[in-house]
Amino acid sequence: MAQNSSYVTVDGEFDSLEDRSFLTIDDYDLSGQNVLLRIDINSSINPENGDLLDDTRIKRHSATVKELSDKYARVIVLAHQSRPGKLDFVNLEKHGERMSQIINKEIKFIDDIYGKEAIKHINNIKDGEIILLDNVRFDDEEIELSKFMNDNFDLQRKSKMVRKLSPQVSFFINDAFAASHRCQPSLVGFAEDMPALAGRVMQRELDFLGKAISSGPTPRIAVLGGSKAADSVAIAENFLQKV
Prior knowledge:
Blueprint: E1 7-9, E2 12-14, E3 34-38, H1 56-70, E4 74-78, H2 93-103, E5 108-109, H3 116-124, E6 130-132, H4 140-144, H5 154-157, H6 160-165, E7 171-174, H7 185-189, E8 196-198, H8 200-214, H9 229-242
Parallel strand pairs: 3-4, 3-7, 4-6, 5-6, 7-8
Antiparallel strand pairs: 1-2
């Protein structure tokens, strides 16, 4: 796919890959369109009062949210916080408040994911407006259906979340790079039914990975981090097959 114009993230301005295999928000006119934006604003929380201790991820995704709003898209945001059983497994109200401060735009937090209240607000959303639905992991299927079977995403596509929200939107935008290794409805279920685009955080990560794999001198050195050794080994094995 041919390169589009440069794009801006909180880290600066970047050029896309000259030949990329994925769609971005540059490839469609999103003005007046309902777009479902999946982001990763999972943040450190003070268990005593629920206050945010770190807004790094919120700042990172705020650029995508603001750009879509500035393009007059109707932005419906999906995100998660922690997981069941953890002290920081809370709703996203304070996340929305913080992002609203960062982008200087109103973000309506909806205490619902795909029920009547969520659908009502989605139906009433106007061009450029932003609504943040509640923690997707409050939905049991988001955890239970995190399985990859038979080389497809039928389980995730048939989840209640996807069946309820898909008719309400025209585009799915995945900006949750840090969570995209997970096979969960909010991450993989929507892409089967509508155009799936990369947000700016996702685009930047894919561009840098693409450049690391396809260009530059050899031999190359890859530095892998993270607390899960098994994941690092799997990534290393895949990387070795491509360079």
